[in-house]
């Protein structure tokens, strides 16, 4: 009897002190259950850390996840695919074994609103691939070893190339080698008008988005477009965040022109502005 009680107490103690990883997004946790990772099989906002700390590859492609909090405890993770999820934050700073990161927006729209990627702790990273990261403003690839062999951040909209207009500087270990297209930087491609720098001081460069400015943003009824150093007409298309085309119009270039947005419902939209040379940029605006 004493032996049974001792075993029972030991079992309770082991369970009581088991490490827990919080998973606040129920969709993320359900994905872990479906993948056979969350051993209790219940969506309860947590998983055993022992369930996740040995996972090497995690495919969360198009799962409808908003928040991947908890990913920091995937200590052995080498491959992560979060393509097609609506992530405001993509923090992989604790995933020190990470070798491959895939984080594209959905092909139907720009649904990956990540504004920054910090890879400074990911010294084992070899591949970063993300399509249509139109919100990306900051990319820090300065991780101390120049070991990222392939960074590919393309942009394509309606079958036409576009640019990541918010990204004007990429932080690297060796800006001279990067700007001279030396290895490993010759294996990188970013659809942006940017410079490589070791510090990315604000204002280090101007990209093509400076050719156009839009205001007010947010807008209520009218959105003004100011064009500089541009001749000919502009073809302007408005898309919603799912990538659905809402309107197309051709505008005569002047110092300032405007479009009517009063019929749009409140939300985030994109202006696809194309000049007569076929050069296209995309500007984000908010309708109040």
UniProtKB/TrEMBL annotation:
Q: Where is the signal peptide?
A: 1-18
| SUPFAM superfamilies in the record | L domain-like
Q: Which InterPro entries match?
A: LRR_dom_sf, Secre_tail
Under the heading Gene3D superfamilies, the entry gives: Ribonuclease Inhibitor (3.80.10.10)
Which UniProt keywords are present, listed alphabetically?
A: Signal
Tell me one Pfam family matched here: Por_Secre_tail
Query: Could you tell me which residue ranges the Secretion system C-terminal sorting domain spans?
Result: 214-286
* The keyword Lipid metabolism is assigned to this record: no
Q: Which protein is depicted?
A: T9SS type A sorting domain-containing protein
The taxonomic lineage of its organism, from the top, reads:
Bacteria, Pseudomonadati, Bacteroidota, Flavobacteriia, Flavobacteriales
């Amino acid at each position: 009897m004493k032996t049974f009680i001792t075993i029972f107490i030991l079992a309770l103690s082991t369970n009581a002190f088991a490490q827990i990883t919080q998973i606040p997004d129920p969709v993320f946790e359900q994905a872990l259950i479906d993948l056979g990772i969350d051993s209790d099989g219940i969506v309860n906002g947590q998983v055993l850390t022992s369930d996740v700390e040995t996972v090497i590859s995690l495919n969360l492609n198009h799962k409808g996840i908003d928040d991947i909090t908890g990913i920091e405890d995937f200590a052995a993770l080498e491959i992560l695919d979060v393509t097609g999820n609506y992530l405001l934050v993509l923090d992989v700073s604790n995933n020190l074994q990470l070798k491959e990161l895939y984080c594209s927006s959905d092909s139907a729209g720009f649904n990956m609103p990540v504004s920054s990627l910090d890879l400074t702790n990911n010294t084992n990273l070899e591949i970063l691939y993300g399509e249509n990261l139109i919100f990306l403003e900051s990319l820090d690839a300065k991780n101390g070893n120049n070991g990222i062999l392939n960074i590919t951040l393309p942009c394509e909209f309606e079958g036409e190339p576009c640019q990541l207009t918010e990204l004007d500087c990429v932080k690297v270990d060796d800006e001279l080698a990067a700007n001279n297209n030396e290895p490993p930087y010759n294996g990188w491609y970013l659809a942006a008008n940017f410079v490589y720098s070791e510090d990315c001081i604000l204002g280090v460069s101007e990209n093509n988005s400076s050719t156009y400015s839009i205001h007010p943003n947010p807008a209520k009824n009218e959105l003004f477009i100011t064009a500089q150093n541009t001749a000919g007409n502009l073809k302007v298309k408005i898309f919603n965040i799912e990538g659905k085309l809402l309107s197309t119009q051709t505008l005569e270039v002047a110092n300032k022109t405007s479009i009517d947005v009063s019929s749009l419902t409140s939300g985030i939209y994109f202006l696809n502005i194309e000049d007569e040379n076929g050069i296209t940029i995309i500007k984000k605006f908010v309708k109040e």
